[in-house]
Amino acid sequence: MTLTEAKKKIEELRSRIRYHDRKYYVENQPEISDYEYDQLVKRLEQLEAQFPELITPDSPTQRVAGEPLKEFVSVTHRVPMLSLANCYTPEEMIEFDTRVRKNLPGEKIEYVVELKIDGVAVSLEYENGKFKRGATRGDGYTGDDITANLKTIKSLPLVLDTTDPRLMNFEVRGEVFLTKEQFKRINQEKAVANEELFANPRNAAAGSLKLLDPQLTAKRKLDIFIHSLGYIAEPIAATHFDTLKKLQSIGLKISPEITICNTIEKVIATWEYWSKHRDTLPYDIDGLVVKVNNLNQQARLGATMKSPRWAIAFKFSATQATTKLLDIVLQVGRTGAITPVAVLEPVSLAGSTISRATLHNQEEIARKDIRIGDQVIIEKAGEVIPEVVKPIHSVRTGKEKKFVMPDKCPVCGARLWKEPDEVVYRCENISCPAQIKRRLTHFASRAAMDIEGLGEALVEQLVDAGLVRDIADIYTLDLFKLLQLERMGQKSASKLLTAIEQSKHRPISDLIYGLGIRHVGRRAADILAEYFGSIDALSAATVEELRTIPDIGQVVAESIYQTFRTPEMRRLLERLRAAGVQFVAEPKKDVKPSALTGKTFLITGTLQKHTREEAHDIIRRYGGKVATAVGKNVDYLIVGENPGSKLEKAQQLGIKTITEQEFLAMVEQ
Ligand code: IVH
Q: Hey, what's the torsion of the CAs at 258, 264, 266, 270, to 10 degrees?
């Protein structure tokens, strides 16, 4: 056979194999027997062995090729891979629809409803119709180059079935997953080899994509569904649905379960259907993804920093499972609060394997009569930590043991105590390593100072290595210190230091929340930041002043007051200030300077033009503060119809009273 003849034959064989790959792996409609298919591949392999110069990377024989990698190379995504906002209830879904319609007044809205595959997000780049490169999502901006592993996925075409140049160069996104069947097989093989099992198909898929040897990845038999376009020079359709159809027509694998809904009721009905029938699918899903179909509308809705406004993940809600309670251990929180945690026989629940659940506190354990060794019902709602609902008393054997609350902290050995009117026990040692770790993780978390890279594992390392003992120590870290840590490279270290530096300029509400003051949650932190405008003003506030802020109750006010008076907090604040952490709120752009600015108002009686909430809103928007009780901090009492006792009190204190009209005139100024 001449080289030219071989080339022709090889091309023909490859094209036939590609055709049958698509029929079998993508469309699930095989046309030939496995034997016939194997013969085609064998023939191609023989010819390629004879004419190695004709081997190309896109040949079906080259899916598993190359030496194991040493590490993955980073890839910067051309278009960031955003995540999706979540919702769990029909009410929240209706809110999403209302938001969409508010932004597109009077327009017809159509939603595409897709399954939310519980797998691993990847991006695939095609160039001149050939698969060029694939990457993990990573942090959304850069991921790992996992091209060699992705090539082993038989349902991923190495060559697209098109000659249209507009359909040959693009980047698509999809979800790599393992079917339940393959997951089971892999775990069985692992069990035989005495290896640790994967917790669920998603973990198994993620682990398989991160193997450095594609030979091993190939054995896992991963699969993929493509669900969106990442980058393309010009649009290929006017709607998301038609885009998917186009991608499908050139050989990409699209989920067969896609519904178009023209009302939100139909979206909800689809969600209800799949909540009940998800078990019938060969792979795990953890909800649906609802997307506005029209691409022009998508573009006009745009995106926030984190997720598009035109799509939302509609997740499945609470589910229960039964398992055995093996033990009860204590977990120490950032304020020293001790939470008993149930150690469970691993059980699969809503797509993940649960081996721990919260028992809240020892009073709950006693109230529900939960004993070690019990069969228990556990429940998981949305993203929250699973909890033990109740034991099944009827299946007790008599060997179950009652739980006794220890009197010492399991981490540092300090005495545990509790306030007489509280149910929660606390570790009294504020230097308890467990508390320190929790405080640091909380401070660095996304909801607080958002120091990317400073997660639980790294905090653990930093504290154990003695590099960090409190929050302020984070700002003393440098390259030299970080590089002492195991598995810490120059690149991650610099990245972390940049993130730490950036955190110094976060809004003070994030700092207030990050300080981890007892009873001060995210919302309270926002309110306090708005009211005081600086850490110094907040730390100087008296309980009475704090009490005048709507939504800040006695317990919260006292906790704030006490915390800022401890020497530890004072020292911490001084060190944070010295490190350059922002202590003063940036001037608010939407606050309009006016006669109200800096003044405190209180309302009594019924107003005519506005509800009380509206009036409060106006006061805040124009830079004023709202009080909830008469006190000497109040500058003006706005008197409506049928005023209450506040009027008399205010007059006694000599506080200026004004009518609603006078108030509105002040706003006008
Ligand atoms: S669309 C802008 N569609 O869910 C985001 N995502 O947080 C576009 N996922 O890991 C994503 N099934 O990979 C979309 N049918 C589907 C999906 C899906 C699963 C994953 C996605 C990402 C996460 C979104």
A: 50
Q: Over 206-225, what HEC string results?
A: HHHHCCCCHHHHHHHCCEEE
Single out the catalytic residue among 8, 116, 132, 380: 116
Distance in angstroms between the alpha carbons of the first and the last residue of the chain: 95
Among protein residues, the one whose CA lies closest to atom 21 of ligand 1: 121
Residue of 294, 337, 529, 557 whose CA lies nearest to 432 = 337
Ligand 1, CB within 6 Å, residue ranges: 82-84, 114, 116-117, 121, 175, 227-228, 289, 308, 311, 313
Number of Cβ within 10 Å of residue 376's Cβ equals 24
Q: Exposed, middle or buried, 323 (CB in 10 Å: 0-12/13-18/19+)?
A: buried
Strand 311-315 to 86-87 pairing? parallel
How far apart (Å, rounded) are the C-alpha atoms in residues 138 and 121?
A: 9
Q: What is the mean pLDDT of residues 465-491?
A: 94
Q: What is the sign, positive or negative, of the torsion defined by CA atoms of 261, 267, 270, 271?
A: positive
Element (H, E) at 6: helix 3-21
Q: Closest Cα to atom 4, ligand 1: which residue? A: 116
Q: How far is the CA of 23 from the centre of ligand 1 (A)?
A: 25
pLDDT for 663 equals: 93
**Interior angle at CA 32, CA 26 and CA 34, nearest 5:** 85
Active site annotation includes 649: no
Give the residue, 330 or 593, on which the prediction is more confident. 330
Render pLDDT for 83-132 as a digit per residue (tens, 0 to 9).
899 888 899 999 999 999 999 999 999 999 999 999 999 999 999 999 99
What's phi and psi for 606, nearest 5 deg? -95, 130
Amino acid identity of 129?
Answer: G
Examine the pLDDT at 591 and tell me if it is beyond 70.
Answer: no
Stretch 255-260: mean pLDDT: 94
Plot region of 21 (φ>0 → left; ψ -120 to 50 → alpha; else → beta): alpha
Burial of residue 91 (number of CB atoms within 10 Å: 0-12, 13-18, 19+): exposed
- pLDDT tens digits for range 114-126: 999 999 999 999 9
The CA-based angle 386-271-283, given to 5 degrees, is 70
Whole-number Å distance, alpha carbon 229 to ligand 1 midpoint, is 11
Nearest Cα residue to 113 out of 273, 229, 230: 273
How many A from CA of 309 to the centre of ligand 1? 14
Residue 318 has a pLDDT of 54
How many Å apart are CA 574 and CA 584, to the nearest integer? 14
- Output Rg (C-alpha) for the chain, integer angstroms: 31
Residue 365 to residues 149, 347, 361: CA-CA distances in angstroms? 48, 21, 7
Q: Please, are residues 188 and 146 in contact by the beta-carbon 8 Å criterion? A: no
Task: Give the model's pLDDT for residue 579.
Answer: 95
C-beta separation of 172 from 247 below 8 A: yes
% pLDDT > 90, the chain: 70
User: Please, is 305 exposed, middle or buried when counting C-beta atoms within 10 Å of its C-beta (0-12, 13-18, 19+)?
Assistant: exposed
Average pLDDT over residues 411-425: 90
Nearest-atom number in ligand 1 for the CA of 116 is: 12
pLDDT at 606: 86
Q: Which of 116, 223, 252 to mutate to test the pocket of ligand 1 (most atoms within 8 A of CB)?
A: 116
